[in-house]
Design a protein that fits this description.
Number of helices: 10
Low-confidence stretches: 95-100, 102-126
Distance between the termini: 89 Å
Helix content: 40-55%
Mean pLDDT: 77
Largest sheet: 2 strands, antiparallel
Strand order of the largest sheet: 1-2
Structural class: mainly alpha
Strand content: 5-15%
Length: 257
């Protein structure tokens, strides 16, 4: 049956009812109206209305208590019959433990007790395995973090030049990036890539790389750039007065203009 009837005469009486109470009563009333016997169990009702079976049991009991539904046993089957001859239930303030858990009603001590999972042998608390699950997940996360740290530690940074002068310049660059630009390398791999790029841009010239670092910091740049202007300034300042040393790098610089 794809619909449920709700007669007009009961509307003033059910204004304080919950949606679940209305749905179950109308379901019983509609089936009775067509001459059929209503024998649905609490389990079937919970599946039909996508509700907790405990909630269904409580709602059926409330409908019986207010006289809207009567119940009788036919062997092992429970038969429900709806009636329109019942008194409207007055709104009363329910105590904390009488509240029915639902979308608009918080859980209570009573409902929380009823929520305890029932297993063979009676109500019990969560299984030991259930209690350990969050601990196991946390432990796995910690082990994964340690694995990543070990992997990063294994990637030792290899400087393109072994001098202390370059090591100091590189530390200065990293500190500048951390303080001024709020940037740190995410992993040893990314730092190694940056060093390799600097080596290529400086064409293997350690002094040019150190000069580029200092110039980039002084200019407040975000990136480390070995620009043509930096090259020009470097070679202009690092040649002896009145003399020109025709190194391979300097000859390449002149060739490129």
């Amino acid at each position: 049956m794809n619909y449920a009837q709700l007669p007009d005469e009961v509307l003033p009486k059910v204004r304080s009812w919950s949606a679940m109470q209305l749905a179950i009563w109308a379901d019983v009333y509609t089936m009775n109206k067509t001459g059929m016997i209503y024998y649905r169990t609490n389990e079937q009702l919970s599946e039909r209305w996508q509700a907790d079976e405990r909630t269904v049991r409580r709602v059926v009991r409330q409908l019986i208590e207010c006289g809207a539904v009567s119940a009788r046993q036919d062997g092992k089957r429970r038969i429900l019959t709806a009636t329109t001859e019942f008194e409207a239930k007055q709104r009363t303030k329910r105590s904390t433990d009488q509240s029915v858990p639902g979308p608009n009603c918080p859980r209570t001590k009573l409902s929380a007790k009823e929520d305890q999972p029932v297993r063979e042998g009676g109500p019990t608390g969560p299984k030991k395995g259930d209690q350990l699950a969050p601990q196991v997940e946390h432990r796995v996360e910690q082990e994964e973090e340690q694995r990543v740290k070990r992997a990063n530690a294994a990637l030792e940074i290899v400087m393109p030049w072994e001098s202390e002068a370059f090591a100091d310049a590189w530390r200065e660059w990293k500190e500048y990036k951390r303080v001024e630009k709020r940037f740190t390398f995410k992993s040893p791999k990314t730092e190694q890539t940056a060093l390799h790029k600097l080596y290529q841009d400086a064409e293997g010239n350690e002094q040019l790389a150190i000069y580029a670092i200092g110039a980039s910091v002084a200019a407040g740049w975000t990136g480390l750039i070995v620009s043509p202007n930096i090259r020009r300034e470097f070679y202009a300042k690092h040649q002896p007065s009145g003399e020109i040393e025709f190194t391979a790098e300097y000859l390449q610089f002149l060739k490129e203009g």
